[in-house]
Amino acid sequence: MRYDAIIIGGSFAGLSAALYLERARRTVCVLDTAKPRNRFTDASHGQFGHDGSNPLTMLATMREQVAAYPTIDFVDQAAVHAVREGDGLTVSLANGAALSSARLLLAFGIVDQLPDIPGVAERWGHSVIHCPYCHGYEFSDKRLGVLNMSTLSGHQASLIPEWGPTTFFLNGGMIDPNLDADLARRGVVVEPARIEGLVGEGNHLSAVRLAGGRELPLEALYIGPSYRFSINIAERLGCAIETGPLGPIVMVDEMKATNVADVYAAGDITRMGHTVTFACGDGVMAALAIHRSLVFGRAS
Ligand SMILES: Cc1cc2nc3c(=O)[nH]c(=O)nc-3n(C[C@H](O)[C@H](O)[C@H](O)COP(=O)(O)OP(=O)(O)OC[C@H]3O[C@@H](n4cnc5c(N)ncnc54)[C@H](O)[C@@H]3O)c2cc1C
Questions:
Q1: Statement: the pTM of the whole predicted model exceeds 0.90
Q2: End-to-end distance of the chain based on CA atoms, in angstroms?
Q3: Is the beta carbon of 230 within 6 A of some atom in ligand 1?
Q4: DSSP characters for 199-226?
Q5: Contact 280, 107 (CB under 8 A)
Q6: 98 and 14 share a domain?
Q7: Which of 73, 144, 223, 249 holds its CA 20 to 30 A away from the CA of 169?
Q8: Cα 167 to middle of ligand 1, angstroms
Q9: Under a CB-based contact definition with an 8 Å cutoff, are residues 6 and 99 in contact?
Q10: In a shared domain, residues 84 and 128
Q11: Tally of structural domains, the chain
């Protein structure tokens, strides 16, 4: 069977697209490996009508609703490769199977590259966080830290005092001299020492242990990790990709079409600002564009 659309990634972007396409009575196959980026957190914030909901619960509900339509197939397999074949696309799966479709939506998300500091990985999404709009309110007026990871970290450090008293951990690195005055004006304390590890019960944070054994009390540490695509399918298809400050971005037009005919992309892989709301909106936009291209033919 040839599907109208194959969607690689069945999370916020992919399932939003699937819902619109099946409501337009199109045949859709969603491939998914069930590793949404925010699976590390218990509560996702900032979504319309779902502030504080568990992300895996939200996705399970959405998948149930999407599965209720008659023209959808779910295949819980990793896509490993995609190529153009004739007037369609063929996607190869990890189990050796191959599926074909008229259109392809890339919604496979990104993978964060966490810093190699003991205690970070197990606290990621709990007390080691990246986005103040997603998780900052819960740490209002607590002792907050920002880890120096890239040129963006200094800017992050000057924003975070909106939520509480902030220390910028240089972790043995340098500070951009242009930021000195900004940080001082915002009341940010700069700590130059290298971080040896994080301290605290379970996934809570109570202190940062610095080189030499000194401990500085802290309740939340902000990091701005770099990232990579979950899979290199966009590159191999020939999609235009730009290097953003923290990782790659698939270039799309306002309808989420890539430069490769019949290939669309949505969600975190297509933007610098990453939220569930943006990913869902991207999925809807891509679905509308895919549907119109199936009805009226592809835009030349
Ligand atoms: C710790 C943390 C907390 C966050 N908290 C919030 C928050 O509170 N509020 C908010 O709005 N945003 C939050 N975000 C951001 C949010 O997680 C992302 O913006 C959102 O998940 C992006 O959705 P997506 O569909 O693009 O990608 P993802 O949700 O990452 O989904 C990609 C899907 O594709 C699948 N996949 C990957 N490779 C393949 C393959 N080869 N074949 C098949 N399937 C594949 C994955 O398994 C996954 O299911 C948070 C992010 C992190 C890291």
A1: yes
A2: 27
A3: yes
A4: E-STT---EEEETTS-EEE-SEEE---E
A5: no
A6: yes
A7: 249
A8: 29
A9: yes
A10: no
A11: 2
